[in-house]
Amino acid sequence: MTTSATGQPLIPQPPATVTALRQAVAQLAPAALPAFTRELDQAADQSRQASDLAPLQRFIAQWAVYVHIQRQPNIAKEFRHWEDAAETGDAAQARRAASAIGKILDDAHAALGLLPR
């Protein structure tokens, strides 16, 4: 991932569309593109089967939050730190990590004007 020397976001937050989010993911975290595509296919299938846009809306919200975090190197680094701590730490550290991850996600949802998780 490219880093910003000033601590500013690497790219502007893209519009919450599949195309714009895909382009942002390709730029910020190309290794995440297979997951993006797989989850988009699943959401599209669920939407078709249920004749409901909710799965696609959840997909877009989830990936907008992902991009919001990844475009800010300091926040992305902190997020990865807490993910690692949750996987490798003891129970107390896992609880702290879950709390910290929840706060980062809540802050991202709020910044994007999304409903709480």
Explain this structure:
Helix 2 (33-50) runs antiparallel to helix 3 (54-70), helix 3 (54-70) packs across helix 5 and helix 4 packs antiparallel against helix 5 (91-112). The chain has five helices and no strands. The protein folds into two domains: 18-23 and 31-71; 72-117, no CATH class. 18% of the residues are buried. The mean pLDDT is 92. The chain has 117 residues and is an all-alpha fold. Pfam families: DUF6247 (PF19760). InterPro entries: DUF6247 (IPR046214).
Which SSEs are present, and which pair or pack?
Elements: H1 18-28, H2 33-50, H3 54-70, H4 73-88, H5 91-112
Helix pairs in contact: 1-3, 2-3, 3-5, 4-5
Give short descriptive properties of this protein:
117 residues; DUF6247; 2 domains; single chain
Put simply, the count of helices is 5
Low-confidence stretches: none
What's the total count of β strands? 0
Return the structural class: mainly alpha
Percent of residues in helices = over 70%
InterPro entries: DUF6247
Pfam families: DUF6247
Question: Concise description?
Answer:
This protein is mainly alpha-helical.
